[in-house]
Amino acid sequence: MTDTFNAPAPVSEHRFPCNNCGSDLRFDPQAGELTCDHCGNTQAIDGTGFQFQPIKELDFQAGLRTDLPGTEMQETRVTSCPNCAAQVEFEDGKHATECPFCATPLVVDTGIHRHIKPRAVLPFALPEDVARDAMKDWLGSLWFAPNGLKQYARKDRKMQGIYVPYWTYDADTVSSYHGERGTVYYETQTVMRDGKRTRVQVAKVRWRAASGRVARFFDDVLVLASTSLPKRFTDALEPWDLSALEPYAPEYLAGFRAEAYAVSLQDGFGQARQHMDRVIERDVKFDIGGDRQRIHGIDTAVSNITFKHILLPVWLAAYKYRGKTYRFVVNGRTGRVQGERPYSTIKITFAVILGLILAAIIGYFVAQQP
Length: 370
Fold this sequence. Notes:
It contains six helices and 18 strands. By secondary structure, the chain is an alpha+beta fold. The radius of gyration is 28 Å and the shape is flat.
């Protein structure tokens, strides 16, 4: 099986010491606060050592010119994974870790990554055990998955909680269009059917020119800014409740990893614009009206473009089975699961043989009928 995951974006982890025993705290998705697994102490997320900033849009053109305020940018140390090409971020004072995507041991490199800071985060709501159960149920629903893979996955292997980067874009659009409106009408015609002349109603379309303008404000067009996960998987994890976004604070990342974006701000807007164009085309067809529509041209003016860099929660599992890697992702808020669908050749062959036997039995009894 071809491994469809590649991960060129930096992945970081954040640590916060317990003010009671000094052990690392982790963000507890169920409690919504920091928890110490060593002494049981809890701490509220109050932005200690980090100034909360409100969730606000940033100017797109300023972002393209890298003319954003210094408070919106940061630099991190990264190294490239020799196995899967992921770029993994290291905290100050840390010199070794393992790649969260393929578990390859890594040693710190000297690479520096400069990028736009996250503006908002959607915190994990599901703990690891709930996400694992959701993945097990999903695997159990796959009839043709190898039994060995299902058994391997059920051995409670650890899942990796990762905040995946996204861009959101806002924009005002005004579109002028020209095309045609079609009105369906019917003509009575005489045709030959079974040797007889029969009168039938035949649909015809009467076209006339149409033109006009449509306007739409796009709010939070969501674009995946990672290349480490297949887009078809992350798209299937939607919808995301963006109304529950919280102002970014690194405490939410305690005990998790956070991947930096690999899709540039400009390339991300290119994907957002494709989504906008599809919506605008639907608006134009609705505005043309009639029974049928033809669009000959749309000219769209886009203005007031703003953006945000946000982080969304995903549980990731990777299993190697008979030399192949199978990876699954779970929405850290809803438990929706997606992943590569492994198939058992033995099960498929058995199903085909069983189908042929059943078809032969049915054919035999049909042939016996007078």
